[in-house]
Amino acid sequence: MQKRNLIILVILYTITTSFVPGGNGFYDSFFSAPATSNTKIVRIYPNPATSVINFEFDKSVESTNTIAIYSFYGKKMSEQRLSNNKVTFMLDDNYTRGLYVFQLRDQSGKLIESGKFQVSK
Questions:
Q1: Could you tell me the pTM of the whole model?
Q2: How far apart are CA 114 and CA 121, in angstroms?
Q3: By three-state DSSP, how is residue 84 classified?
Q4: 30: helix, coil or strand?
């Protein structure tokens, strides 16, 4: 148990020290939206989630975009192409309690927006 806590602390320390302003680290690009976009185009609810998570998109979001959910450790949990302005993911047993990150990407793979949400089961 102590070893697991130590590993978690090291990971959290690594992540938080990667948020240096102007840095180009992996976590900066993974967790933050592009600097050119200050307006949120994705709405997430409920947050925290228990069995489902809903994403609603601005009308400007194209249907060729994809949304992916990653665990806090970077494992891709789900991915779905947008079919309309709302996407719902069922949070099965693979989604344990914790933080998750979503990424909205265009057809070429460019990051449009990212954010995080919490699962509390």
A1: 0.68
A2: 23
A3: coil
A4: helix
